[in-house]
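Researcher: I'm preparing a figure for a lab meeting and need a structural model of a single chain. I don't have an experimental structure, so a prediction will have to do for now. The sequence is pasted below. Please return the structure as tokens so I can convert it later.
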Amino acid sequence: MTAIDVAIICLMTMGLVIYVGEPLVRRVSSRPHRREGDDATERLLLQKEMLYVAIRDLDFDFQTGKVDQKDHAELRQQLEREAVQICVNSTLLILW
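Model: Understood. Here is the structure written out token by token.
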């Protein structure tokens, strides 16, 4: 191998590293700075999503006969109240 071959291989390797690494560096550096309330907002949004999943699962259990109509109505109403409260809290936190 000549010096020219080694130089070409090194240049190709550096080009490949830059080609692969540049998007990763750009993604990390372009992230917006986090505010204090971001963690609380993310937590509330996660809780809301979990409640939506619980409502969907409850409806499925009702349709398959695992839950009777009275229990379904009571549990769904309770889950909906919690979801509304979380939506209100997250909206107020985002606006604040």
